[in-house]
Specification:
Elements lengths: L2 H19 L6 E3 L6 E3 L7 H13 L3 H12 L4 E2 H9 L4 H11 L3 E2 L4 H8 L5 H19 L6
Parallel strand pairs: 3-4
Antiparallel strand pairs: 1-2
Helix pairs in contact: 1-2, 2-3, 3-5, 4-5, 4-6, 5-7
Length: about 150
């Protein structure tokens, strides 16, 4: 990893630090002056930050390093399906893509739109790996809906 990549990764992590502090209870936020509670939904990484992250992932020479960058980003960020598909497209082999998807899945913001899942599954070459990808996504979604989110 060159110096530009390291600086970009540190900046990415630094930008996400305030979000990490507010994630102690991401479901409900309590305002001290008002007795008002509301559900707080995560947002996908901002496009500018995502572009910077993609540069760092692209600069990483091996799949393990690419997945390592993704793991660091997943500490404090969420991703939409297009961002996930883009990250997976930067990895050559299906086995490594499956590892990356296991890291990304708990941090994905997926609505009920089938095309969102399709964008992700299209990144895999073989039907058996597409099935594995669907299973990873299904498990992540069911864990989230039952309240057992993996973070």
């Amino acid at each position: 990893m060159n110096m530009k990549s390291i600086i970009a990764l540190v900046m990415l992590f630094t930008l996400a630090m305030p979000m990490m502090a507010s994630e102690q209870n991401p479901q409900v936020e309590h305002h001290p002056k008002k007795e008002m509670r509301y559900e707080r939904r995560p947002r996908a990484m901002h496009n500018k930050d995502f572009k910077m992250m993609c540069e760092v992932v692209d600069d990483a020479s091996f799949h393990e390093k690419k997945i390592g960058v993704i793991k660091v980003a997943c500490i404090s960020s969420y991703f939409n399906s297009k961002q996930c598909a883009k990250l997976l497209s930067m990895i050559s082999f299906d086995d490594a893509k499956l590892k990356a998807l296991k890291v990304l899945a708990p941090r994905l913001i997926i609505d009920t739109d089938v095309t969102e899942v399709t964008d992700i599954v299209k990144q895999f070459s073989f039907s058996s790996n597409k099935d594995k990808a669907l299973e990873i996504l299904r498990q992540s979604i069911s864990q989230r809906s039952s309240g057992n989110s993996c973070r």
